[in-house]
Each structure stands twice: as C-alpha cells, then as structure tokens.
Specification:
single chain; mainly alpha; Growth Hormone, Chain: A; two-stranded antiparallel sheet; 16 helices; 2 strands; 76% helix; globular
Length: 467
C-alpha cells in the first residue's frame, strides 16, 4: 500500500490486531501451561512441544512466506493465514490429548506466519501484558468449565472479525516483482533445525532411543548440504532463502548473534518463571500473570522513548539495554536464592520492569543497527533472515533450557526442586545475555536508522513468541 493511498490508516488496525494475536498466543500459553499440564496430563516434553511448536511452524513458513506474498498477493496470504489461525485456535481449545494440542499449535503457528508487515513496540508491549494478565484471568475464571481452553477460544471471534475487516480494507494489488522461490533451501533449513531441536526436547523423556540419536547426528550434514546448495544457487544467479553473502557485513553477523541469544533467553525464561510462580510458589494463574505486567509496562515505555535514543546513539542503546537485563537477572537470581519459598512476587516487580526496559532498548534498535553495513538492495532479505532467526532462537531456548529445567525438577516435584530448576534457568540465561553483550560490542557504533514500517518485522515470540 503506497504512502499516498488514503486507506492505509484504515487498514492499520487490521495489521496491528493480527500482530497482537500472534504475540498474545505466545504469552497466554505460557501462563496457561500449568493448567494444560494438569488437565490433559502432558509430560514435560509434550508441554515444550505445545509452547515451541507454534514458534517453530511460524519460523518455518516465515522463511518463504514473504516471497509467496510477493507472488500471489499479501492480501490473499493474510486472509488465508488468519483463517487457518482461527480454525487452529478452535482445534487447540477442543484438544482432548497432548498429541491433538501439539498438532493444532503447529498449524496455528503455520497460519500466523502470514504477516510480513511491521510490528510496533506498543503493540508488542500491550500483547505481552494482555497475554499474561488476561490469560491468567481466563484460566481462573473457568467460564463454562472450559478452563485453559478459553485462552484459545477467545481467538475465534477476534479472528473472524479480523478476516472480515481485512477483506474489506486490505488492498488487492500485487507486488510488481515476481521473486523466485527456493523450496529446497526452505525445506533444508527447516529440516536441519528440526532434526536438532526435536531430539533436544524429547530425548530425556524418551530415554534417547536410537531414532532420536540418528536425528541429532543427521542435523549437521543436512545443515552443511543446505548451505552448500544455497551458495551454489547464489553463484548461478538464483535467490536463496539464506543469502550467505550477508555474513560478510559485520553489522549483520554481530546483529544475528545478538538477535539469536536475546530471543533464546527470553523464550526460555518465561516458561520457567511461570511454572515456578504457579507450581513452585502456589500462585494462581491470574496472580502469576500480574507478576509479568511490569515487564510489559517497561517494554511499552521504552518502545515509545527508544526512537530518538537510537537515532542519537545507535548500537550503544542495544549494549546499554543488555546491561540492564543482565543486572535485573542477577538481582532476580540473588533474590530467589536467598528468599527460597518465601520469594515475594511484589519484590520481583522492579526486576521484571527492568527486564522490560532493557528489552525495549534492544528490540527496536536491533534491526536498524544490524543493517548498517548491508547493501540497500539486500536490506529486505537481511531483515527477513533476522526475523526468522528470532523464532528459531526462541524454539532453541525453550528446547535446551526447558530440558535443563525439567531435569533439575525431577520426580517427585517439590518446592525446593522448583527453586533449583528456576535458578539453573536464570544462570544459563545470564550466559545468553553475556554472549549478546559481547556480540553487541562488534556492532558499528555509528548512528543507526530506525527500521521503516515497510521493512520485514522484528518479531518477539516466541515463543514462544517473546519480547
């Protein structure tokens, strides 16, 4: 939609609602996870798949979704994706077994990957707050005896309304370009990551059967073969989904590391803290959701304030935000270690606020500073790669750190075991933040251009979609 199109502002709410729903579903499932686990008796690995399957499917389709939009119209892709997302939400709410819920979540993530439009910081913050608080309220309300199922059913009327408005307001025009598709590359990247991540989520609970070991071993050669194919395709003048020449730009390489580590830590910490607050400390779903509210407030505040800071200080804003997150995680770890089962959520509130402020400094600036050294004609591909890596990093964080969390939890579960498990997660998350900080030092210190609304999205989820 062009800048001169008078309908562009009418269509904006449709885009924001779709963005909101995607993030809402990341946070709402986090806070509903204990209720899901108790009601349909999901194992720890199955619970990880419920949370991570959404982000994995989202990332897998996002690899090539933008090109499909260019070829067949973003309006058609948007409406089809929203329809699939709405139907899958109903299937999630009706699921009677862990397998049914896992499959429905995967389809839900696949449907939600239709959005190749910009995310806005305020929408991210509101989605974070609403997902945690409203999710907890819906679980505790137990309307019609639906319990946790209501967090999925609420998507149905919103999805239908969004489809109807989108059909009326979104433009019918197609992109003038007809980009080439790269199905082999898209499948190769997805398979390589799936072969590595699925064993990490299922290995411990399944006792590491031979098929999982083989899967993990195959991940490396499949990944290498995919990279070789992508390089060959580029040399022949094709359009690979993973443009390896982007890594020659220092800003992109460093930004990708920061990007991956930030979303890996954030994807894992939310699930671990939610289980700790509800199961370890015995808090209700609503009370646990309210505990995360300061995080969203901090994210909204910094999203509104970050633009002039980014324009003036560039990548220093990213580095400073990571320092804030590091100190907040240290404070949380110390408080939980010293307080034990007497941990006071009210005392954690300023630390949640600081994490939100830190993330609010990092996320809005990250795409801009990562593209500083990238050629203008490759900026779209670079931003799309960064957005996709966020989703895969979220899945990786959930896979690795959740396994550590549940291994430390053991059987039978006790309050002390929950304390131990969440401290392990916090320690490893500190490692991710330190790696992000070191990588941020290699980002160009020049002023960065804040990404325009036309660029591919900076998407927190993750994950668990998460900001």
């Amino acid at each position: 939609m062009s800048e001169a199109d008078p309908k562009r502002w009418e269509a904006l709410p449709v885009i924001l609602v779709a963005s909101f729903m995607g993030l809402f579903d990341v946070f709402v499932v986090n806070v509903a996870a204990p209720a899901i686990q108790q009601d349909i008796h999901t194992s720890s690995s199955e619970l990880q798949l419920v949370v991570a399957g959404y982000a994995f499917a989202y990332a897998a389709f996002l690899v090539t979704g933008g090109r499909l939009g260019d070829r067949y119209s973003y309006r058609r892709l948007f409406l089809g994706g929203m329809g699939l997302f709405t139907v899958a939400s109903a299937a999630c709410g009706l699921a009677g077994t862990p397998a049914e819920l896992i499959v429905a979540r995967f389809v839900q993530g696949f449907g939600d990957a239709h959005r190749a439009l910009a995310w806005f910081g305020v929408t991210i913050g509101i989605g974070a707050i609403t997902g945690q608080i409203l999710g907890g309220a819906l679980v505790q309300l137990d309307l019609f005896g639906w319990g946790w199922r209501l967090v999925f059913f609420v998507n149905i009327p919103i999805g239908i309304a969004t489809i109807l408005l989108g059909a009326r307001l979104l433009p019918r025009n197609r992109s003038a370009t007809r980009p080439q598709l790269d199905p082999i590359g898209a499948i190769g990247v997805t398979c390589a990551l799936g072969l590595a991540l699925i064993p990490l989520m299922l290995g411990r609970s399944q006792g590491w059967p031979s098929w999982l070991v083989v899967s993990l071993v195959l991940a490396l050669p499949v990944g290498v073969l995919t990279l070789l194919y992508e390089a060959r395709l580029a040399r022949r003048g094709g359009q690979p989904v993973l443009d390896l020449t982007l890594f020659a730009a220092r800003s992109f390489s460093s930004g990708l590391v920061v990007n991956a580590c930030v979303f890996a830590y954030f994807g894992s910490i939310l699930l671990g803290l939610t289980l700790f607050l509800q199961r370890g400390l015995g808090m209700s779903a609503l009370a646990a959701g309210l505990s995360f509210a300061p995080l969203g407030v901090g994210l909204i505040t910094m999203s509104l304030l970050a633009r002039p800071l980014i324009a003036r200080h560039g990548s220093r804003v990213v580095t400073g935000g990571l320092v804030v997150v590091f100190l907040a995680l240290i404070g949380m770890l110390v408080d939980i270690h010293l307080s034990g089962t007497a941990t006071d959520p009210a005392r954690l509130a300023p630390l949640f606020l600081a994490i939100g402020i830190g993330n609010g400094c990092v996320v809005p600036a990250l795409i801009g500073v990562s593209l500083t050294d990238v050629l203008p004609q490759k900026a779209g591909a670079a931003a799309g790669t960064l957005a996709t890596s966020q989703q895969f990093a979220t899945v990786a964080g959930i896979a690795v750190l959740s396994e550590i969390f549940f291994a430390a939890l053991g059987q039978p579960t006790t309050e002390q075991n929950y304390l131990t498990a969440v401290q392990y997660v916090l320690l490893l998350d500190l490692g991710f933040v330190v790696a992000s900080f070191v990588a941020s030092l290699f980002l160009p210190r020049l002023r960065a251009t804040v990404p325009s609304r036309a660029q591919p999205p900076v998407e927190p989820v993750a994950a668990t979609e998460s900001a």
